[in-house]
Amino acid sequence: METLVQSLVSGILTGSLYAMIGVGLTIIFGVMRIINMAHGDMVMLGMYSSFWALTLWNIDPFVSIVFWVPVAFLIGMLTYRFLLKKIVPAGELNTLLYTAGLSLFVSNLALLVWTGDYRTIKLDYAVMPLRPFGIAVPIPLAIAFGMAILITALLYWFLVKTDTGRAIRATSQEPMAAALMGVNAAQMEMLTFGLGTALACGAGVLLAPSLYLYPTVGEILVAKCFVIVVLGGLGSVQGAIAGGLLLGVVESLGAVYVSVPYKDAIGFVIFLLVLLFRPSGLFGVGKS
Amino acid sequence: MKKLLVLALFCFSVLFLTTPAMSYDTLKIGAPQPMTGSDAPFGAKFKKAYDLAVEEINQAGGINGVKIAVVIEDHQAKNPLAATVTEKLINQYKVLVLTGGRASGQAVEIASVAQRLKTPYVVDHPSADIITSKGFEWIFRNNPTGTIYPQAFNKFISETPGALPKSAAVVYDNTVFGKSIANSAMAFLKSKNVKIVNDEAYPVNTLDFKPIMTKVKANNPDYLLMVAVSTTDAILLTRHAKEMGVSPRAFVGFGGGFGVADFATELRKLSDNVFSSAAWSGNPNDPKTKAFYQKFEKKYGFHPKEHEVEGYAIVYIIADAMKRTKFTGNLEKDRDLLRQSLLKTDMTTVFGKVKFGNWKGPLGDKYTNQNIYSPDHSVLAQWRDGKLLNVYPKANAEVKAVFPDPSTKK
Questions:
Q1: Does a structural domain hold residue B14?
Q2: Above pLDDT 70, what percent of chain A?
């Protein structure tokens, strides 16, 4: 019983961060139809930002997120404006290839500058976990969980309640009609890409104290990301949250009750099953 | 007259070309090592060790007047690349002999190429049994094999009263190295009727060991044995085991990851009292080895361990064989002559005694050209306050073992 609860808790904690990364990817796809292969590398950059903030300026990762997220937001907007905007009208396949190239460029640049060494973040308060009811809850992961929920909730509120949020959703549902209603689609697209990048980078900052970082860590994360987003339904924010949590729990239970080497395989089996029975994902809107 | 001159010239040139000259300006030792990528810290360790030995030997007059050099090629800890750079070292750089490799996966590749291209490969650190149990006559090994690593631990649990585990969880990486060590440890435990409650393999560079440790904790093992070839795995295994609250009487690590300084700097107090059963770093109570430790520390500013001692010793073993070889200048012939000299090696280095022979390992593997003194070269050490100190066998112990682990209350 304790084992079951422990694996559920671990799964949900990790899943919340998966969800945060997934939401970033899904809004970018929803609004611009960009399949962003470089999303994992944004997470990687977030992890390194967090690492350098701690080692160079001695700023706690959970504090440094306050300025890294706006920085990433700006970088995201600039990336869209100067690198991606022209390629978007050329179709999804082109953006896929383009962002894949961008991903290779970013990760290899990181490899060149920061070398392939594995690095970890050492926090004094993170040595021993909390143990409520005998369930181990690692402190950095617990803080990251809290912040991920907060950020995702804020984003959700922004999308549902504010005018800009509504405009983003409108653009996502029907760009032409939104433009006719006076929504500045180009601005919304830039904004969304910024938001997506900020979410990815923020998740990276939060993940860094629990994982170790190296320049190609994005590869693992981006594969998981696509599973999450497709699982939940491409373009659906609720779907990405549900998909992230589901993948986290499935991996954790799979590793405990089946076998560790198969934990990724189990994630993909669930992925295939969902697609088989619900081709547009759990929360899919069934749009072409 | 002119014809005669041409003939003379021809004869002269033939004579000149075939003159058996000692035509090596340096005697080259090739060493494929990971200089970039996740294993780069190990490549750097070996480079320092080789450099020191080469410098000493050359200062003392080299090999009968000829200088030696170690040519390092980066294999990035990738198996296919290890094979490629080995061929490059043999064919392009024309090295006489190979060493290095760092990890077993890469060493297996290097060994196959060396055997095929008839170049001696004197292994300094890779420990999978298979490297010297394929019957390859071109492959030699100074360090103990993986199945010998747990020997010191085995002795400790059988000879210390009350230390025999009631049950054990075994977690290991699914590499050649991980599997051979885990099998060796489990075979011994089973022979002592110790129940193995977990038998878990994981892929190298796993990011999250919490699920495995959750599973381990559920079985509440008396001992937790962990095998990790990679340092990051060793660190995360230990960290996640302690985070999840696994509380055995002893945490025992096997393999490179548990023996490097990073283990303590990353884990800090979590590393305290974790055991590491591995190849030894020479006998710390031996004055010659002690002198080497001091010299090394003075030059590089850190205390040499297993890897540095092995790397330093191997250059001396190769140099000793080179001194006993009459080189002809014909590379292929010289490689074979050097191999025959290696067969007659019988010396003592800072790593201990060495003599290559054919014998049977703990799991029945038939070794070829494996150091016959290897069974004495395994040691059980324990992390204390950031330092890895030998605790067993008593002959080369530096301190007494802390056991059971005081951080885990039963």
A1: no
A2: 98
